[in-house]
Write a structure and sequence with these properties.
By secondary structure, the protein is α+β, with helices and mostly antiparallel strands. It has one domain: Inorganic Pyrophosphatase. About 30% of the residues lie in helices and about 25% in strands. The protein contains 2 helices and 6 strands, in the order βββββαβα. Strands 1, 2, 3, 4, 5 and 6 form a 6-stranded mixed beta sheet that branches. The radius of gyration is 15 Å and the shape is globular.
C-alpha cells in the first residue's frame, strides 16, 4: 500500500506509509485492484494531508479533494501501472475508517515473519 501526502501545491509524490493516528480524520484511501500477467492483487493508495503547512490555503482534509482532482489522480495511477504492463481497476474512494483498517492490516502483514 502506497501513501500519498497531499502537499499544498500541485505535485503528488508517494511517501512511506507513516500516518499519525491522531490526524486520522484527514485520511482517505483509493481502493484499487492491480492485475499483471501472472496475478491479481489489491494495491490501495492511502492519502493524507500534512498536519502542518506553510500555506494558509493548504488543503485541510483529503476528503475536500474535488471530483476532478480525484479523477486526475486515478488517471495518473492507471497510466503509471500501464507503463509496467499492469492494469488497474479503480474500486472506489473510502474514508478514514477504511484507511485506518488498511493501515492496521498492512502493519500486521509487515510484522509477520517472511517465509
Amino acid at each position: 500500500m502506497g501513501t500519498i501526502l497531499v502537499p499544498p501545491f500541485a505535485h503528488y509524490r508517494p511517501t512511506a506509509p507513516l500516518v499519525q493516528a491522531a490526524y486520522a480524520e484527514g485520511l482517505r484511501i483509493l481502493e484499487v485492484e492491480q492485475k499483471s500477467k501472472k496475478k491479481s492483487e489489491r494495491n490501495d493508495r492511502l492519502f493524507a494531508v500534512p498536519v502542518r503547512s506553510h500555506s494558509e490555503n493548504a488543503l485541510r482534509d483529503v476528503r475536500d479533494l474535488t471530483k476532478p482532482v480525484q479523477e486526475e489522480l486515478e488517471k495518473f495511477f492507471i497510466a503509471t501501472e500501464e507503463l509496467e504492463d499492469k492494469k488497474l481497476k479503480i474500486l472506489g474512494w473510502e474514508g478514514p475508517k477504511q484507511a485506518l483498517m488498511a493501515i492496521r492490516q498492512a502493519a500486521k502483514s509487515f510484522a509477520k515473519p517472511q517465509e
